[in-house]
Fold this protein.
Amino acid sequence: MRADARRNRAAALAAAEAVYAEQGVQVSLNEIAHRADIGNATLYRHFPTRELLLSEVYAGHLERYCAIAEDAVHAEDPVTALRDCVTATCALQATNRGLADLLASLRPLSPHVEQLRARHYRAIAKVFRRAVRSGKVRKDASPVDLAVLLIANAGLIHRTVDDAPRASARLSALWLAGVISHGHVEAPPAPTESEIRRALNR
C-alpha cells in the first residue's frame, strides 16, 4: 500500500472511531469521510461497506468484551465473578456510544466479529451456570437477561452519558441486586433531578 493510501486509511479509521464513539453506529459514511478530510470515494475504496468499517474499528473492543467474560469463568467465587463481569461489561459499554450499540446488537459485520460473539457467548453462559449452581443467584437467570440489560443500557447511554454519567452504573447495580439473592450490591447515587432534566431535554 502506498504511503498516501496508508495515511488515508489510518485517517478514516481514526475518524470513524471518534464519530462512532460520539454518535453511535448510525452515523453516515459521508460524515466520517468529512471528519477524516478525505473524499467519499477514498473511504469507499478502503472500506466498501459500513460493516467492514465497523468490524475494523471495533474488533479490539470486542476482544476486551470477550476477555471480561473469560476472566469471570476462572474467578474463584462464581457470584462475585458474575457481579464483576456484568459491572465491567456495562462500564465498557458506557465508554463509547458505538460500542454500546454493538453490544446490544447481533448485526452481522464480519466472520471475525461472529467468532468473537460466539466466544463471548460460550464464556458468559458458563459464568451464569456457575452462578446459578451456587444457589445465590436466581434460578432462572441466564445470558438472555444480560442481553436485555445491554439493550436497555445502550439506550440509557445514548441519552444520559453526557448529563448523568452515573446512570449506567446505577442501572447495572440495581439489575444485579435483583439477580443476586440476599446480596448487597453497591450502587452509585441516583442522577440528580437537574441531570435527568438535561438528559430528557436532549
